[in-house]
Design brief:
The chain is an all-alpha fold and 117 residues long. It contains 4 helices and no strands. The protein has a domain of 39 residues. The chain is elongated, with a radius of gyration of 38 Å. The termini are far apart.
Length: 117
């Protein structure tokens, strides 16, 4: 692999790899990042400081850790609780009557005989 391709400056990204198509191990294009080197550490520090300053200069609204619920959301939660209780009551009533039917199966059979003749 030719390492000079990876380290050289390229005006057109990908143009230098045109002759490498079909090789067993293709050359990976370099990252767009600026690698930290002794020559450019001051530049990278200034770039990072400008980035942090721009981030902190943004006007962001204050966000509470635990925001309060709106009145509509509280009312909706109460409706869900009421509907859940009604549904739970209906299931409990169904289980209760099923248990009664199992315990008094002979009465049900006698009623069916009388009804059907």
């Amino acid at each position: 692999m030719n390492t000079t391709l990876l380290l050289s400056h390229r005006p057109l990204p990908g143009a230098e790899f045109a002759g490498l198509i079909g090789q067993r191990w293709p050359v990976v294009p370099p990252s767009l990042r600026t690698p930290p080197r002794p020559e450019n550490r001051a530049y990278l520090r200034a770039l990072r400081a400008a980035e942090v300053a721009a981030w902190e200069a943004q006007d962001r609204p204050a966000v509470r850790a635990f925001p309060r619920l709106e009145a509509e959301e509280v009312a909706e939660g109460r409706w869900f609780a009421v509907l859940g209780l009604i549904g739970g009551g209906a299931v409990a009533y169904g289980l209760w009557t099923t248990g009664w039917l199992v315990q008094h199966w002979d009465r049900f059979v006698a009623f069916a005989h009388r009804l059907l003749g």
